[in-house]
Amino acid sequence: MTLKIIKNLRTQFGKLGIDGYIIPKNDEFFSEYSKTDRLKIVSNFSGSAGYAIILKNRNYLFVDGRYTIQAQLESGNNFQIVKYQKIINCNLFKNLTLGINPKLFTFTQIKKFFLKNNKIKFINHDLINKISKKQSDSSKPFYSLDDEIVGEKHEKKIFKIRKFLKKNKSNFLFITAPENVAWLLNIRGYDNPNSPIPNCNLLLDDKKNIYFIANKNKTKKILKDKKIKPHLIVEPKRFGKFVDSLKGKKIIIDSMTCSIFNEIIINKKFKILKKEDPIYLLKAIKNKIEIKNMVNAHIHDGVALTKFLYWIKKVNKKKITEFDAQKKLERFRKNNSNYLYPSFNTIAGSGENGAIIHYRASKNNAKYIKKNELFLCDSGGQYKYGTTDVTRTISFSKQRPRIKNIFTKVLKGHIAVAETDLKKKQCGKLIDIEARKYLKSIGLNYNHGTGHGVGFFLNVHEGPHSISKYNSVKINEGMILSNEPGFYQKGKFGIRIENLIYAKKTRGKLFFENLTLAPIEKDLINYDLLNFKEKNYLFKYHLEVYSKLSNYLNKSEKKWLASLI
């Protein structure tokens, strides 16, 4: 199928006057997960980030360090795999004219990656969807969340944004990220596979108008809830004429999520001010109700995961595949009536598959879990009151000292992050150093960030904050992050320990509190490498896991969990 689509695509090059075509991972809403995955259609690559570039006689797939192994396995027969860093102004496309769909790119993207050595031509119809005849389902309406779930009325949030408009002396803010619209109006939807995202945009003015840009058939429920007014709904195909009808001089757009297509329309009418959407930071700082609900979600998620860990280590005697394991975990989660679906595609990798950072087992390709191999399971859930993300590395047999030593070094980094004094280390890049230093002491490292922001019943990956080498955003009270150092030996094994944590302030001290509640694999720890403080942390963590989860467990599960304290 992939080769047929590429062949059909190349037949279009001559009449369009292009030498190649660029396909991004994102959709027109720049979502991480989309029901319309053009990149997978053309390349078979299933990772969450990347670009495919189809030339007349060669295909390239650009991915970051998380996906180099996976990309080679999924797409290596038809594509040359290249690391992201090399895409920036690379000579591979020198003097070529590359076609793009302007609805799928921002000017920021093409300036960074493609404009030094080549020309870009805008093609206003989507070539991939046209060839593959792939259309996304858009029938289900958006819906509102109750105030006791979100903790803050949408009117209060809108007031904050209008203060931002006033401060920047602008008439309009164009909110292009659907998750930001969702946060602002306290609404959700069904347009993405792993997140309750409503595919829509919003234009907020400096008076009292909220222009909601979406298909009208999706607005019935939120109209009933009086979140928006009927006469202020704009169909996306009418966006150009709608912009022409507006009065004002200045509009703010976010250059990271406003498409070239929309920016061109807006630029004809308004003076554009490019600034980061203020909702990103507001959304990142969770209120007390959101934190309370996230705590509740993690208790129930912890029960499911703990039951699964006990089952796979102590109960299951069958020979099972990676796919069988992830389905079993999913069944444990489904026992909770408030569980909806996974927050991302579960990563369940045994042995060498654990070294593929974002590996995905399917029914057809899954390998059997071997008792002498490490099993890495990274999973999460969307609950009606929160989002979870957790990784555990599991051992079924006695492991070599080297593996135990590496696991323990990863654990030491994990504990160092959890125990961070946020008054001293206020941003992610400082914390990231602490997470890596124990592995680096033995010449090892990992090729991904140590932690990402997490949404409240929204995207499992959220900015602007993160724990990574380059992130300097100050961590504020109420921010939720993942804590997930790891190590991966290609063709052998993968190790990762991941909890979600949030910044909490007590008596003037700002520190991280664990959200995730699930036992850490003690059979892989070399206790000689842990100091007293680290051993004490581990003891207190497992004591907390037991105290909060034991009431939901049966006698055997409870006894096993108690043995880990």
Please identify the top-level CATH class of the largest domain.
Answer: Alpha Beta
Q: How many strands appear in the DSSP assignment?
A: 27
What is the architecture of the largest domain at the second tier of CATH? Alpha-Beta Complex
Order of the strands making up the biggest sheet: 4-3-2-1-5-6
Beta-strand fraction estimate: 15-25%
The CATH homologous superfamily of the largest domain is named Creatinase/methionine aminopeptidase superfamily
Number of domains: 3
Indicate the multimeric state.
single chain
**Portion of residues within helices:** 25-40%
Q: At the third CATH level, what is the topology name of the largest domain?
A: Creatine Amidinohydrolase
General form: globular
Could you give a short account of the major beta sheet?
A: 6 strands, mixed
**Total of DSSP H or I helical runs spanning 4+ residues:** 19
| Mean pLDDT over all positions | 94
Separation, N- and C-terminal Cα atoms: 52 Å
Secondary-structure class:
alpha+beta
Rg of Cα set:
24 Å
Low-confidence stretches: none
